[in-house]
User: What shape does this take?
Amino acid sequence: MSDLKKMYKTIMDDNFPDQMTIKFGDQTLVYRKRAWKIPDEKSGELIEKGLRYGENPDQQAALFELVNGNLVLGDCSYISPGNGLVSSITEEDMIQAGKHPGKTNLTDLDNALNILKFLSAGPAATIMKHNNPCGVAYGKNVSEAYDKANMADRIAAFGGCLVVNRAMDKTCAEMVSGNYLEVVGAPDFEDGVVEILAKRKNLRIVRIKKIDNLEKHRTLRFVDFKSLIDGGIIVQQSPINRIRTKEDFLSAKAVYKGKEYAIERQPTEGDYADMLFGWNVEQGVTSNSVLFVKDGVTVGIGTGEQDRVGVAEIAVFKAYTKYADGLCFRKHGVPYKTFELEASQGMRDAKALKEIDEKTRDDRGGLIGSTMVSDAFFPFRDGVDVGIKEGISAIVHPGGSDRDFESIEACNQADPKVTMVFTGQRAFKH
Assistant: This one.
């Protein structure tokens, strides 16, 4: 039998040109292929390589950085040279290449920055997996933010990509080194941090200096390309998140058959804080999506589903699963599934497992008092009811459904009442 592990050790040469030029009418954009001089995994000698491979080990891939040209279409000026983040990473920034990065490592870094550009208010951490967040959190410092983000979904965080928006300190590094991650990104690393992280030799350690100026990217558009199987290309503007402060939310009101419906419980400051946090995180989640957040931490994230009720139910299921795992790991130092298996074999106290299950059920997976966020409106109240059943306190969604009145009624009929705001903007991401 062949060694299947060998395919993941593949380093693909690429046949893409060193330079790429794109013309939009009479405007020209020039891109340069990015490559790095990194130690060869076998000999240790420096070799120049671009991306390791694409989404899979048998796909060639290349990274291009915009180096010349400033695209202006209509009244919109797009990102110009000098604003590079992931595409401008140099050998100096790639502090430890580990297995030098492939496409998914860089797209995870990129989407982490897409979320963090909205979270500049304080130390924050996001852990990405397959271009979706599995845990995002604010903290008093980056170590607390990382711990909260990690415990929000320890299971999915395995092999993920962590990015923090402040310099990483030793406390955070020690916590990170105890887990398995593929990539760690930060604006800088305090003295002694790299030595701690480097204990995991295959970890990619990347400095992204411009995280300090990341907030300005909130209002900078880029051109988004989608290639079709027939060789065609769909081109679109990147989105702009219109929600900056609580004043940007719209009061949840609707008119149906001449009757006006309005939300009865107005948001508290705490509600607004989580509404802002949750809607900002939503910008980096693959649609169809619903997520729950509480006290500046993600609780359950449902992604990429075809129906809104189904994705809400998945987010609830994930919240319960991750909550039980977190309880188990905090108290017993092992994952819930390991404890459950060992309990079935008589190696662990079955009573302790029952206690975890009961607390998870009583706390409803940490969803009580959380905020429910949806990237598009709820076409019927059934999706809203999924969250209300779990004891949520607030809902954020774009609004605009013909049946918004049903969702408003559901919130007003809840005990205790649930508050709701509209964003007036959809946040689909495919």
